[in-house]
Each structure stands twice: as C-alpha cells, then as structure tokens.
Amino acid sequence: MDLEKLQAQTEHLIEDVIKQADLKKGQLFVLGLSSSEVNGGVIGQHSSAEIGQVVVKAIYDKLTAIGVHLAVQGCEHLNRALLVERDLAEQKDLEIVSVVPQLNAGGSGQVAAYDLFNDPVEVEHIIAQAGLDIGDTAIGMHVKHVQIPFRPIMRELGGAHVTALKSRPKLIGGPRASYDKVDTFRQG
User: Fold this and answer.
1) What confidence tens digit (pLDDT) does each residue in 45-72 have?
2) How many domains, the chain?
C-alpha cells in the first residue's frame, strides 16, 4: 500500500468530515478503524501497524489543530473501549479501565494512538458529537443521539467502506413545539 497516498487521502477525508460535521473546539470525535479493510482484507484478519499510524496521525493532527478531542475505538476484544487522553477522561469523569491495546486486541488505530497521545488511557464509554468509521467498525454506540449519517467526500479509504456520523439534539415537545430558531436542527 502507498502510505503517502493513504496519508493524503485521509487528510482530504477528515477535512471534509470536519466541515460537514461542523466540529467545534472542545468537542469529542470518535474514530473506528480497520486497517485490514483499508488494506483490502477482512476486518480483524490482517491488522497493519503502519496503516494505523498513518491514518490516526493524519486525523489526530487535523482535529488537534482545531481543538477537537480524538477518541479511538478498539475492537470487540476490548468491548469497543476507547483510547483517549487522561486529562480528557478526568475532565469528563469517564470511567478508566485497565488495558494496553495490542495489534490484535484493540487494533492498529488504538496502538497508533497509544504511541501518539501524551498520556493515553482506555475508557468504556463516551458520547461524541461526531465520528468516522473506516471499515465498518460500528462506532454508533459512541455518538450521541440523534445520529445523522452523512456521505463524506470519499466513500472508501483504500479498500475500506467509510461512514461518517454527526449529531443534533433531540427534538422534544410534539406538535405544539417550534424548532425554527434552533440552530442545531438546521444541521440535520
């Protein structure tokens, strides 16, 4: 796989997702990544540390530049726990769990983030404002309700299917309610 091309494609993809999701400083973004799928294989079968490093660093750099926090979802062997910076976990009172991600238990994305983050910890759950799922890793459980899927500029990264999610507040109040002045409603 051409890693320079993958980096450029990932940067292009995350720039589009940032714009479409209208991410703001301080928000939380979840990434699910199957490097096996990016490399044209089957999820969980042939993880690639190199692909994980390229994809996670490209996304991390773009999100960090605008003050958005990255949470990297692990595979089912870690119950889809998420790797985040310790200061974020403490600030948001997230429950920290004890595990160090490995290539085949956590995945290439978590291993890359573990090396990249300043003080990484695993947490069980988060509620992110948006996310990117590269390779059908099922990130929806970590994006707040109401989730709005949208089509990013690229539908595939390497051989992996790409799905993006943003969110909006729930609409409440029934037929008597008005939503005309709610900015977040217009996002959906």
Assistant:
1) 889 999 999 999 999 999 999 999 999 9
2) 1
